[in-house]
Design goal:
The longest helix is centred in the last third of the chain and has 56 residues. It is rod-shaped and about 100 Å long. The two termini are about 40 Å apart. Helix 1 packs antiparallel against helix 3. It contains three helices and two strands, in the order ββααα. The protein has a two-stranded antiparallel sheet with strand order 1-2. By secondary structure, it is mainly alpha-helical.
């Protein structure tokens, strides 16, 4: 279905929702490893470096968690939009079918 240059396809909407969830899962799996973060802590490195790495790791973890939550929320919204579109399409098709089924064809008079 196309509206003003935009196209809606329930399969595409559902597939996009799944992709967003997959990206969120990959972000969670790829977060900074605790052991890698502790390698740069004092006494293995200078105190300033240790603090900078600790601050960055905390910031990165917060940003990663926020992004995963946002992608999950967008996926949920996209899925519910797809469901609403499909329901609306089904209701519109049912109304049209009812109209056609209850109509009677009356041929025009010939001239």
């Amino acid at each position: 279905m196309t509206f003003g240059g935009y196209r809606a396809a329930p399969d595409s909407i559902d597939g996009s929702a799944h992709i967003l969830l997959e990206i969120a899962g990959l972000l969670e799996q790829g977060r900074l490893d605790g052991d890698a973060g502790t390698m740069a802590r004092a006494p293995r490195s200078h105190q300033d470096v240790s603090e900078a790495v600790h601050d960055f790791a905390g910031f990165a973890a917060d940003q990663g968690t926020d992004l995963a939550a946002l992608l999950t929320a967008l996926s949920t919204l996209l899925r519910s939009t797809g469901n609403a579109y499909t329901s609306t399409e089904a209701a519109t098709a049912a109304e049209l079918r009812s109209f056609v089924d209850s109509s009677t064809y009356v041929p025009g008079k010939r001239g």
